[in-house]
Amino acid sequence: MDHQLLARLADGLPLVARPYEELGEKLNISEGEVIERLGNLREMGVIRRFGLIVRHHELGYRHNAMAVWDCPDDQVDGLGAKLAAFPFVTLCYRRRRQLPQWPYNLFAMVHGKARGEVLDQIGQINEQARLSDLPHKVLFSNKRYKQSAARFQSGLDRTGS
Q1: Those residues with Cβ within 8 angstroms of residue 20's Cβ, 6 or more apart along the chain or in another chain
Q2: Using CA atoms, how far apart are residues 7 and 154, in angstroms rounded to an integer?
Q3: Same domain flag for 70 and 131
Q4: What is the reported pTM?
Q5: What is the pLDDT of residues 92-151, one digit of tens each?
Q6: Are residues 61 and 134 in the same domain?
Q7: Contact yes or no for 148/53 (Cβ under 8 A)
Q8: What does the pLDDT read at residue 79?
């Protein structure tokens, strides 16, 4: 039954006032049972996170940049938490450096309606989080790719066949 629930979620939640109730109706279970099963799947690690995909471009946010910094390893978690608290940061994470070509280990995505707005926001981050002295770059998107949710398949072995 849980594979059916995951399959129903593959295209996202229905855009209705009570999406879990609608899922339950399609699976012949209650809204409460849908929520309980999703909680169980999360506890078991089958679902690691439950989020949404915002189509920024359709909302008028056509200027997108990934700002990256080369932070001391012992400070990157604290700095990441500061960046994630900015209301205009939509994604913030740490990655391993790929030396010698790529020394950056802290990433933050910023969306704006104008290029200048994005640069101003990244300036605020640098000033308020005291990152200005760290090596950093601002990488603006120049191509948009389709965003989609994870897809689940059952019955596959580890090779995918």
Answers
A1: 13, 31, 34, 35, 38
A2: 10
A3: yes
A4: 0.66
A5: 999 999 999 999 999 999 999 999 999 999 999 999 999 999 999 999 998 877 766 666
A6: yes
A7: yes
A8: 97
